[in-house]
Amino acid sequence: MFFSIVIPVYNRPDEVRELLQSLKAQDYLEPFEVVLVEDGSADTSEKVVADFPDLDISYFYKENSGPGDSRNFGMRKAKGNYFIIFDSDCVIPSHYLSEVSKALSEAYCDFYGGPDAARNDFSSLQKAINYTMTSLLTTGGIRGKKTAAGKFEPRSFNMGISKEAFQASEGFGRIHPGEDPDLSIRLWKLGFKSRLLADAFVYHKRRISWSKFYAQVRKFGLVRPILTSWHPQTAKITFWFPTVFVFGVLASLIFASFGFMAPLYLALSYLVLLLIHASMETRSVYIGLLSVVAVLVQFTGYGLGFLESFIKVRLLKKEPRQSFPHLFFD
């Protein structure tokens, strides 16, 4: 098995340097290649690539067409028979490739995903958002918990896919975000099986602020009704939970103004539970508090985005590309 590591990048040479340094430090003894796809960047990584002559790197520059199409471009250019996809803001532990090789040798699968983790040197905000995005209490563990419910949907910040599966599916679609679950669903329909490799984790250094996080999760909410319109069998009641939470909290505040406190106490109990769990997981009460704020931001952004998209796409039957053109690369 020959691994081709495919990395789309857009104006992030500093991130690419740290990512390539982590790939150079792999303890994996077999050869592998890196395919770096510059997606129309003004600030390119070409000089950074030149600093890593010991790595087998194929560097390509193309016009901007989005991360999904850039991954497809890289996989078409790759020489390997198994593709591993990372985001440019990831740092890869030294055991990663060895772990993936071992796992696939023991139980082969045509596509897999791994978790993301927070390194000790991450900022408090990065650690809080990492908790929010990965905790079983907030997302159901869909981004890499062993206890996650249902089939595992790999995410392209840390994902592997065989050449056969890529060619059969034709890779990622033109929507972003949402291209990851869309690809997983289409692969399942084609008969391919997904798998979580829990020990093949990456350190995901999200470029994040509160405003960027809200915008990101709002887009996640917007794309979900679009995906369920394309793949109706994937609709789940759990997709409604953030929306129900937001309006439930608002209703509990109204009830509390009339002296009916039980709904407010229920919402506060959930937030206290999150605070305790996040503080224990991160070993910091301060990060625990930030995690509670992050959950409120996440549920509000996702929940309102989901409701807006559901009304337009599912109820009013509007064309997704016309309603939300910023979610598509043409």
UniProtKB/TrEMBL annotation:
Glycosyltransferase 2-like domain location: 4-137
One Pfam family recorded for the sequence: Glycos_transf_2
Gene Ontology molecular function: transferase activity
InterPro entries: Glyco_trans_2-like, Glycosyltransf_2, Nucleotide-diphossugar_trans
Lineage: Bacteria, Pseudomonadati, Bacteroidota, Flavobacteriia, Flavobacteriales
Positions of transmembrane segments: 263-280, 286-307
Keywords for this protein: Membrane, Transferase, Transmembrane, Transmembrane helix
Protein name, entry field: Glycosyl transferase family 2
Signal peptide bounds: none
